[in-house]
């Protein structure tokens, strides 16, 4: 189970709570701790987080009209964002960046990715291979630099990293951004520390960046502290966020030093790198990719769709209201994540997923139904009706049955949610 899944499950467990008392919070915190420890977040971090949540949740009362679950989600979100630190806004100016890290952390890949990142934004960029310990380091970076279309400097066979750094700085002095790749180790040792120090001296970088991969989990925290103590790092790049499934490493690394997470690596391709956005990171862990924009989108969608909450009555839920709802839900963007988080797993997902085509198809199919059929979907179990509607709308029987199936899913979900007291207020807000 990954961290996000664990967190979402913990949140799901409190969904039935109607009041927030010490017991509810403690139970929730236990789940949260379990999820985070499983995801390899460092123990002290886990405890400080759950303490923060407990204090905040018990000290203040949820604002009127807010379900306990939404309230706690909000607190958890705030605390997690605080924990991972601020988002990073890359500066587009002349700069030298020294990358360090252990074997396989993704230094060499990141060097080329970063150079491309800046070059794509209008700066010229180059990379220097100062990895003097791995035999094929030179060729690897040379190839990646070619792929990324950035300048490359290296001295094959030269054992002195500082010497390469010096010559490389000279050779690439016209480039706005110069990134230096260095040797790795299985663990930070005195020889590497002294090599990094001497490269640092001649290269004189504006940023000293530790590259660590998310997969290593809580070891990331220790690693960050060690590098920080040895060569004072100014930032961290967390790679392999795509494959980790855990995400705990990033949390630990982000918290282990005063250095912030600058970028995250999200794949092996040269474009798979993005500036760290703490809200997005936590949001996607919790299953709410854009928490801030969500409320706004919900409001806009309701207004745009002209839904009056009083109008939609589950007893009278018919094909017309189905279409209106689907249209409104479609406008809300990444809604399926929120629905998933709220346990509404059975919503017709692909119908929600950006499907203008499907929507207009549904519109035509519904228009081909008789008034009676629109108000009573049970009639649509009859084969000859389905065939007639398909013919009349120029679609297939399969299309018609799919619509009926999506309709039933939505109706079922709405029914369940209406019976859920916590969900009621949210739904009223949503206009369902
Ligand atoms: P180094 O030893 O620190 O220089 O690490 P490398 O740059 O050689 O990367 C080690 C391996 O990790 C390579 O196979 C890379 O393709 C892979 N890698 C690096 N960054 C990422 C990432 O963000 N996502 C994924 N999936 N793989 C990555
Ligand atoms: Mg390397």
What kind of sheet is the major sheet? 8 strands, mixed
| Unreliable residue stretches | 294-302, 305-311, 333-346
What ions, cofactors and ligands are bound? guanosine-5'-diphosphate, magnesium ion
Number of strands: 8
- One letter per element, helices H and strands E, the order comes to HHHHEHEHEHEHEHEHEEHHHHHHHHHH
Instruction: Provide the residue-averaged pLDDT.
Output: 79
Broad shape = flat
Q: How much strand content do the residues show?
A: 5-15%
- Order of the strands making up the biggest sheet: 3-2-4-1-5-6-7-8
- Provide the helix percentage: 55-70%
Walk me through this protein's architecture.
- Strands 3-2-4-1-5-6-7-8 form an eight-stranded mixed β-sheet, sandwiched between helices.
- The chain has 20 helices and eight strands.
- The chain starts with a helix and ends with a helix.
- It is flat and about 85 Å long.
- Helix 1 packs antiparallel against helix 2 (22-38), helix 2 packs antiparallel against helix 3 (43-59) and helix 12 packs antiparallel against helix 13 (319-330).
- It is α/β, with parallel strands linked by helices.
- Strand 7 (260-265) and strand 8 (273-275) form a beta hairpin.
- Residues 294-302, 305-311 and 333-346 have low confidence and may be disordered.
- The chain is 56% helix and 10% strand.
- The protein binds guanosine-5'-diphosphate and magnesium ion.
């Amino acid at each position: 189970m990954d961290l996000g899944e664990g967190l979402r499950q913990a949140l799901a467990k409190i969904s039935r709570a109607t009041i927030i008392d010490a017991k509810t919070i403690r139970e929730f915190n236990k789940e949260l701790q379990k999820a985070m420890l499983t995801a390899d977040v460092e123990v002290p971090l886990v405890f400080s987080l759950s303490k923060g949540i407990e204090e905040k949740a018990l000290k203040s009362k949820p604002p009127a009209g807010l379900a306990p679950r939404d309230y706690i989600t909000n607190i958890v979100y705030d605390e997690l964002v605080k924990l991972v630190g601020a988002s990073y806004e890359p500066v587009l100016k002349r700069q030298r960046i020294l990358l360090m890290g252990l074997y396989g952390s993704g230094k060499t890949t990141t060097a080329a990715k970063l150079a491309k990142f800046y070059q794509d934004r209008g700066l010229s960029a180059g990379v220097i291979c100062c990895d003097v310990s791995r035999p094929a380091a030179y060729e690897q970076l040379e190839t990646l630099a070619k792929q990324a279309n950035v300048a490359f400097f290296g001295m094959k066979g030269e054992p002195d990293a500082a010497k390469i750094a010096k010559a490389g700085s000279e050779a690439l002095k016209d480039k706005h951004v110069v990134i230096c790749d260095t040797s790795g180790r299985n663990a930070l040792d005195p020889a590497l520390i002294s090599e990094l120090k001497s490269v640092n001296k001649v290269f004189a970088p504006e940023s000293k960046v530790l590259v660590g991969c998310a997969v290593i989990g809580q070891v990331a925290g220790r690693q960050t502290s060690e590098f920080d103590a040895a060569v004072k790092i100014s930032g961290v790049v967390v790679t392999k966020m795509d494959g980790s499934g855990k995400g705990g490493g990033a949390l630990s690394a982000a918290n282990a030093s005063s250095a912030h997470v600058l970028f995250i690596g999200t794949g092996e391709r040269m474009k798979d790198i993005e500036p760290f956005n703490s809200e997005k990171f936590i949001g996607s862990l919790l299953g709410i990719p854009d928490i801030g924009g969500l409320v706004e989108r919900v409001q806009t969608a309701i207004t745009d769709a002209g839904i009056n909450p009083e109008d939609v009555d589950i007893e009278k839920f018919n094909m017309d209201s189905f279409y209106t709802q689907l249209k409104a839900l479609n406008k809300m963007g990444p809604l399926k994540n929120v629905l998933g988080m709220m346990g509404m797993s059975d919503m017709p997902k692909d119908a929600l997923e950006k499907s203008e085509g499907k929507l207009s198809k549904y519109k035509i199919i519904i228009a081909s139904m008789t008034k009676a059929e629109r108000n009573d979907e049970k009639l649509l179990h009859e084969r000859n009706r389905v065939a007639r509607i398909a013919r009349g709308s120029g679609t297939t029987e399969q299309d018609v049955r799919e619509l009926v199936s999506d309709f039933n899913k939505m109706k079922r979900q709405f029914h369940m949610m209406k019976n859920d007291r916590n969900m009621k207020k949210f739904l009223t807000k949503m206009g369902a």
